Each structure stands twice: as C-alpha cells, then as structure tokens.
Amino acid sequence: MENKFIKFIKSTTAKILSSLFILALVGGYFLFPDFYKEQAKKVVSYYWVYKGDKYYKNKEPQKAIYSYQKGLEYYPKHFKAQYNLANIYVSYEDYYSALSAYEKALQIKPDSINARIDYAIVLAEATFNYDKAIEEYDKAIKLSPKWVYIPFIVNSKNTYKYNRGVAFYNLGLAWRGKSLLMGDKNFDSRKFLNNAAESYSNALKIKQNYQTFYNLGIVYHILKYPYMAGYNYCMAIEKAPMNYEAHYNLGILLREYGQYNASLEEFHKASLILDIYGDASKNQYIYDILNDVTRRIVAKGNHDALVDALKLQDKKVENHLVYKGGRAYLDENYERTMYKYFKTCALREHFVKNKDNVDIQWK
C-alpha cells in the first residue's frame, strides 16, 4: 500500500512539473515573443553553420559559402561563420569581400587575435594598405585575452604567445613594404626599415626560425649594416641550410664588401642547392655572378685562394666516392656531410663577434 502511494506521489509530481514547464514555455512565448523568436533563429543558424563547417573541412568552398551565408541570415552575429567565410574569400582572391567579412567578425569578437592578424595580412599583401595593416598588427600584439590552461589538454597562453610572434613577423613585413614605397634614399624609408628590424627582433624573442632571420638580414643589408646582415643570414642558414636564398644573399653581401673568396663559397652552395631542385633559370643567373666573382679574385691576383677553393670542392666529393664494379657511387654518409657543409656560413665568427655594432666599418 505504501509503495503504491509513493509511486502515485512521484507520478503526480512529475506530471505537475511537466505541465508547469510547458505552461512556462507557452507563457514565456506570449510574454517575451521576441526573445523566443531570436533563440529559434539561433538554432536554425547553428544548423547552417554546422553544415558550412562540414563543407569547409571537406574542401567544398561553394557549398560552405552558401551554408555560412544562410546561417548569417538567421543570426548575423555568428563569429565563426563570418571568419571562415572571410578565409574562403581569400582562397578565391576575392580580397574586398574577405576584408568586409573580417571586419564583421572583429565587430562580433574584437579580441580574436587570429582574425585580426588575417585581416591585417590581407590589408598589407593584397591591397597594400600598410598603414591600416600596421594599426591592426599593433592591436593584435596588445591584446590580453584570458588564459585557459588544462594540463595535457589545452594551454591557450602558448597559442597566444605564438600568435604574437606571427603578428610581430608580419608587422615587420608591413613596415618593410611601406619603406619600399618611399624609395631607397629617403629618411622615412630608413625609419620604416628600422621599425621592421625591431619587429623582426621581437618576433625572434618568441620563436626563432629561418624566415624571420632571413628577412631581418635583408633589412640590415638594405640599411648597409654588413655585420648585422651577415649574422642574420648565417642564423637563417643554420635554421634551414637547404634554402638557397640566404646563401645567395650572403654571397651578394660578401661580394659588395670585397670578401670575394667567402662570396664564392656561398654562391657555390646556392648553385648546388638549385642544381638539386633543378631550377635552371635561377642557377644560370648565379653562375653568371660566380664568373664575375672569379674574375675579381683573379684581378686581385689571388690565384692560390681560387685554386684552393676549387680543390676543396673536389675533395668534399672525392672523399665520399665508393667504387663498385668499375662505377662510382656516393657513400651513405655523403648526404649528412653535405648537409653539414651547407649549414656552415662563411665568416660566421667574424659576424658573431661584431653583430651588435652598427658603427663598425667593414675591413
């Protein structure tokens, strides 16, 4: 009897609560119709954005665009839809539509460092609006979002630190781009280049990589600070020895300051790398410069140094030849040895010793 009574109470209570909940919903709809309509629109919007995300992930951009646009019709303040829509427009090179979408995304979520950096990149690289891009990079760098840290799962502080590094690097590119508009011998051009150098240096404090060292080397090269340029080219080479650009630019720098033997060594490395990748047009240009450097060495009467350099090249290969059945093969350690060779940098110690002195003259 007691069990039946308890079951009756539970059943009745559940029915009463369900009825009250339904009445509350119905009553709420009549009392606050706009609120309920807004929530219903959000539900429909999230459905379309969910479909857009699937199409975006599956690389079906046209369907993704349609889905995101439908989602935004129901709920225009959906950040992810606006942001992904902007990224798709960039892939189609529809830069002005992308800028509009980024702007709307940032109105919804002003503290999104990724959206602000992407927005600035398009401003600088697609529309050459360097002033606005620099302004946006500064905003991204100054953002202070709340950290989320769950051990072994998520650490948003590291992500934010990485993004600040990206912002500093791209800020350097923007300052350098702005300097190019002013001409080579303009006071403002040098000021902008110094701003670029500062930005790259700040990026290197966060993460050291080839591109940042290489671009910092270019800036100091243009500013005619040979030791600082050489040091950063060397650091770039150590980070990515098989990228020919740093070897080539270092060769140019060394040639400009009369260091022909060292210049010859870096041009040889650049040409060997291009031989590996089969870029004949660029390699022909480097060989022309090699011939010019060789003529300068001969003109200075430094024949012995030129012969020694050529012998060194031959010796590097000869020491790794293995003869089998009358044919020559490179042994298995050659690739490692060549990598170490490419990683070395002409006059490295000289650059390291003087890397911070902007007043010193080349000797």
Report the structural category. mainly alpha
Rounded radius of gyration (Å): 31 Å
Share in β-strands = under 5%
Q: Output the strand order for the largest sheet.
A: 1-2
Low-confidence stretches: 309-318
Number of helices: 17
Description of the molecule:
This protein is mostly helical and 363 residues long. It is 77% helix and 3% strand. The strands form two sheets. The protein has a two-stranded antiparallel ribbon. Strands 3-4 form a two-stranded antiparallel sheet. A hairpin with a 3-residue loop joins strand 1 (149-150) and strand 2. The model is unreliable at 309-318 (pLDDT under 50).
Keywords:
single chain, 363 residues, mainly alpha, two-stranded antiparallel ribbon, 77% helix, elongated
